[in-house]
Amino acid sequence: MAKDEGLIIHFDEEQRKDLIKGDNEGANFSDALSVPDWEMKQLQVVLLSFSGTTIDYICLAKKGSRVATAKSRVEFYDLVELDNVKLSEIEEKLGVQKKLVFVKSSSGQGGRIPTKTWVATLEILKELRTYKKSEIERLISLKSVSKYTFGGGYADQLSQEREALGAALDIFSGSNILRKEVLSSWAPNIEDVKDLDDGDLTATLSINDMQKSSFISGIASRHIQEESALQHDLVNWEGESAQFHEMGVSSFQQGSRILDIVYANKNSLEHTLGVDLIYYNQEFHSFVLVQYKLMKDKSDAEGYYYRPDGQLEKELARMDEFSKQYPADSEINSHEQYRLNPDGFLFKMVPCRGVQAASSQLISGMYITREYMQFLLGNGGPKGKNGGRIISFKNSPRYLTNTEFSSSVNRGWIGSKMNQSDILEKIVKVFLETGRAIIVAVERETANKSNHSDSTSAPGV
């Protein structure tokens, strides 16, 4: 650890003072600063002051390339408001003769704070702003463990939940911007991080059954809602929630559109068998259900591959049975009902690469439709060198990529044609009994929207 670690930046120029106006929770910006002792791309937790007498924000920052003589571009992001903590309060709690130094943004004058004083300062901030404690700890965790990749059973489950949440955000937003903001904010509880290996940059997570352990529980609190805030009549969550080991709710809005996301799990993480994503779009009256499978094996011939087992066959049979009970209506009565594929069931094969804090990228995997999976498991499907069934990128080429899948669901090209809104609640109940966690994402409108594709209309229309 560096001898002098802490950094408080005083933005003493008028151009940055607009940041203190309005709600800037989670905001980001960049500036050119003189920070010669800061390594390139090194993640830092920094405190920001716009008055010189208060600490206004805590955030993450990363130094980029040089943009002027003795100055480098610094990216500030994931801002957490501290509601103007008086510098005098902090210094009083630190004790006599403890004066906090600033670095002035205009000149670069000033210096860093010794590590012992910096750690004490962060503890005092958590004490003075108890309602921000979890967010302060999340930023500290991000800085401390972002270079490590977490592996093992808990990390495998979190990796699948992360993929499901990221896919839902991409479908909703139609781009990767929202997903990058949300996923990059995730960090584990620092006390759960064990077995750090600075050689190969790996670590493990140790999570007990009494604490919240879902991926959603580790993202920025600004994205997390109270369970009571969930208001839609497609699923009776109030009637179901008493049976859950863990439940989490997030909500996102773009214009007149809202995405409600519910994480529900009847089992502890240790006994959870995987995750399913159920995405429902009210405009198209359609859902897709994606079941995630980890590709844990790897060979020189196939790369990452998945070896189908009896459990996969049971899950495929469950999908088949549901499709028979609720067949797609062949008649089209509106533009929104047209599909390229009216089947809502898919699998995603995900290479087992662990999970990493502060990362925004999804793992490149294979989205496989229910019908294609039936072929892959049948007599005509691919086989390994010893005749066993395996699924890999090389031998199962008719899969959808992350972008192809999210774009197709976003535009309503694939997904069921639901005739009844209560089907969603039925499918949630059925798949909750399988021992897997589910992430249910419901996209809805807050106001009438004349054209879903108004941003992509043909010229002259």
Features:
461 residues; alpha+beta; 2 domains; eight-stranded mixed beta sheet; elongated
Record the SSE blueprint.
Elements: E1 4-6, E2 8-10, E3 29-33, E4 43-49, E5 54-68, E6 71-86, H1 87-94, E7 103-104, E8 113-114, H2 115-128, H3 133-145, E9 149-151, H4 153-173, H5 177-183, E10 193-197, E11 202-205, E12 224-225, H6 237-240, E13 246-254, E14 257-265, E15 275-281, E16 286-295, E17 297-299, E18 303-306, H7 310-325, E19 345-351, E20 355-356, E21 366-369, H8 370-377, E22 391-392, H9 402-410, H10 422-432, E23 437-445
Parallel strand pairs: 2-4, 2-7, 9-11, 15-23, 16-19
Antiparallel strand pairs: 1-8, 3-6, 4-5, 5-6, 9-20, 10-11, 12-13, 13-14, 14-23, 15-16, 17-18, 18-22, 19-21
Portion of residues in helices?
A: 10-25%
Question: What is the gyration radius calculated from CA atoms?
Answer: 25 Å
Q: Report the sheet-strand fraction.
A: 25-35%
Largest sheet geometry: 8 strands, mixed
Low-pLDDT residue spans:
449-461
Report how far the terminal alpha carbons are from each other: 61 Å
Q: Assign the structural class, choosing from mainly alpha, mainly beta, alpha/beta, alpha+beta, or little secondary structure.
A: alpha+beta
In total, the number of strands is 23
Principal-axes shape call: elongated
Mean pLDDT across all amino acids: 85
SS element count, helices = 10
Strand order of the largest sheet: 12-13-14-23-15-16-19-21
